[in-house]
Amino acid sequence: MERIIGIDVGLKRIGIAFSNGSVVVPLPAVIRKNRNQAANEIMQKINEYKADTLVVGLPMTNEEMQRRIKHFVSLLNFPGKTVFVDESYTSAEVEEEIKGKIKYKRDGRIDSLVAKKLIENYLFKN
User: Fold this and answer.
1) What domain range includes position 90?
2) Which of 27, 57, 72, 90 is 20 to 30 Å apart from 38, CA to CA?
3) Residue 41 sits in a domain of what CATH number?
4) Cα gap 116→72, rounded to integer Å
């Protein structure tokens, strides 16, 4: 069974989620102090969950963020399969789904729910 880590890379937080191929769960987000610290924390999660696939959200309408995200992913020493998926509208979808359930806080919960949605999109498109 495919073990997947999904990440939603932002400038301040990186949402992260895990799937064993059937269940997808959000994990606590990585609060980004600098890119090396963030890359190390993401690699710790990848190793802890023994992921063989990394699903990364890529904003198709923002070339500068695409460049930054691809650079960040290049810092990860990940030997498995890396898949970039279109993250357009995923934040809006998640915010709509949680309206009234989670007060909008910048603690990373929403970022990790976006990462969960990225994995779900990947799983249902394959």
Assistant:
1) 4-125
2) 90
3) 3.30.420.140
4) 19
